[in-house]
Design goal:
Blueprint (H helix, E strand, L loop, with lengths): L2 H4 L4 H43 L4 H6 L3 H93 L5 H92 L3 H12 L55 H38 L10 H30 L1 H12 L5 H6 L16 E5 L18 E6 L6 E5 L5 E5 L3 E3 L2
Antiparallel strand pairs: 1-2, 1-5, 2-3, 3-4
Helix pairs in contact: 2-4, 2-5, 4-5, 7-8
């Protein structure tokens, strides 16, 4: 059943119902807009969160060598991509639902207004026709009454003995005119009645049903479009679910890639010093008498230090061959330097090849350029290549020495730990720096030793648990720091062996 048949007399109900449908569309559009705001704010907060926890800088890049650090960075990257999908949901909802439904709502409002206006116009036309019918009906009634009265008056005049023939004829003519006018009003009323009945029949059986059916079709189309909007609300998010799932799978994969054993190996390789463990101390038998000062069994043998840093006006720059570092750290720094030089050398060689090719083109086609203009660049590039090759050979030689000298270095460490140094050497060690002791280097902080450390190699210093130390140089990322003991001894110790106090 349609509206035109079942609701032919319910104009006000249809008006209210269709308006309620439009209000629902507007309400849904507002709801989706607020949903997009939620998605955009959520995505913005996720991006700010990932930005806050994303590591930057050399130290953080060094930490990312460990799988647990690197996995966390991957999780942040996946979460940032996830935020992008939330933004895409908001954008698609705005364009596919809000914008389209808003445009459709404007069209359907205009269509509804037109249908209702046509209905009111038809109603007004029928009411106007009814008024005209009532008017002709009243006129017919009035004229018929006048005609009846004139007829009675003519009969009365005719029966009056005192009336003249002229009066009788005049009364009859008046009655006849009134009767003719009444007949005309009767015919007009009959025609108007027939016209009204025809218009009323058309109004209730044709015009109103058609207009109400148009409103029904419009409302049903609105419902279909709204249903599509409901489905899009879900489909838009479903469309990005595969990508969101990949982001979540990436987060799970990042957690699965963590290898705690490999992280431990990387940590060991990054911070191990390469020193040998201290050997056993010899038994000192005081029952045999006091031993010579040069005995190797002294309880506190003086340490041999080829270099001494404190009390200098200017801190000497690190050695170019990194010999001031522990063995393992030295090898790593040398290898890193070699890699950097190799990259620079390759870049210069590529540039040299490009310049040579360009020169060849200029020689074959002089109109394209002057070959001699490239000579300064070719010469400079050749000099750079020669310089870099020399530096590469130099650092490779130092690396070879560092790798090949480990055994002899270990032997020296063992001899030092057993006290093969003399007190006289320790007393004369400052002589070579006497000319430079103009100003004392200021410590940059204080720390307390957590453990005892035997500094048995060149550049290191021994410390005991609980000893207060002055920090002369912070850890540069290799796990070692330079400290000054209360007795004036200075050297490198592991950074993890101390606790900062100021």
């Amino acid at each position: 059943m349609d509206w035109g048949t079942g609701l032919w007399d319910q104009y006000d109900v249809i008006d209210k119902h269709t308006q309620c449908g439009l209000d629902l569309v507007e309400r849904y559009i507002k709801f989706v807009k607020e949903r997009t705001d939620v998605e955009q704010n959520y995505a913005k907060q996720l991006r700010n969160l990932t930005k806050k926890y994303t590591k930057r800088g050399s130290k953080e890049e060094q930490d990312c060598k460990y799988s647990n650090h690197a996995s966390f960075q991957e999780i942040l990257n996946e979460l940032n991509d996830y935020a992008g999908q939330r933004e895409l949901i908001a954008e698609n909802m705005m364009t596919s639902i809000c914008v389209e439904l808003t445009k459709y709502l404007q069209d359907i409002k205009l269509e509804r207004k037109t249908h209702l206006s046509d209905t009111k116009k038809a109603q007004q036309n029928l009411e106007s026709s009814l008024k005209q019918l009532e008017s002709t009906k009243k006129r017919f009634a009035k004229e018929w009454a006048e005609a009846d009265k004139a007829t009675q008056q003519a009969e009365k005049t005719e029966s009056d003995l005192n009336a003249t023939k002229l009066d009788v004829d005049k009364a009859k003519q008046h009655a006849h005119a009134r009767t003719r006018t009444a007949e005309e009003c009767r015919n007009e009323y009959a025609a108007q009645l027939q016209k009204y009945n025809k218009e009323q029949n058309s109004f209730y059986y044709s015009e109103i049903p058609q207009l109400f059916n148009n409103l029904q079709e419009m409302d049903e189309q609105r419902i279909r479009r709204l249903a599509e909007g409901y489905c899009k609300f879900s489909d838009i998010e479903k469309n990005v679910l595969p990508i969101i799932s990949k982001c979540l799978e990436g987060i799970s994969a990042a957690g699965s890639k963590i290898d705690e054993k490999q992280d431990s190996i990387i940590f060991i390789e990054q911070h191990k010093s390469g020193f040998e463990r201290p050997g056993d101390l010899e038994f000192e038998d005081y029952s045999q008498g006091i031993k010579p000062a040069t005995s190797e069994s002294s309880l506190h043998p003086p340490k041999v230090r080829a270099k001494l840093w404190p009390f200098k006006k200017h801190k000497p720059p690190p050695a170019e061959d990194f010999s001031h570092l522990p063995p393992e750290q030295r090898k790593k720094r040398l290898q890193g330097k070699i890699d950097d030089i190799a990259k620079d050398l390759q870049r210069e060689q590529d540039q040299s090849e490009a310049l040579e090719k360009m020169k060849g083109v200029y020689e074959q086609s002089p109109q394209m350029g002057d070959p001699s203009s490239l000579e300064p660049q070719i010469s400079e590039t050749g000099q750079n290549i020669g310089r870099l090759r020399g530096e590469l050979a130099k650092y490779e030689t130092w690396l070879s020495e560092a790798v090949g000298g480990e055994e002899s270095s270990n032997a020296i460490n063992n001899n030092t730990q057993h006290g093969v140094s003399t007190a006289e050497h320790g007393l004369n060690i400052y002589s070579e720096f006497d000319d430079d002791f103009d100003e004392i280097e200021t410590p940059i902080g204080q720390c307390t030793a957590l453990y005892t450390f035997e500094g048995n190699s060149e550049g290191t210093v021994s410390i005991t648990e609980g000893e207060l130390l002055s920090i002369m140089e912070q850890d540069k990322g290799d796990g070692w720091m330079r400290v000054l003991r209360a007795g004036g001894e200075e050297g490198y110790i592991p950074s993890s062996y101390v606790k900062y106090t100021s």
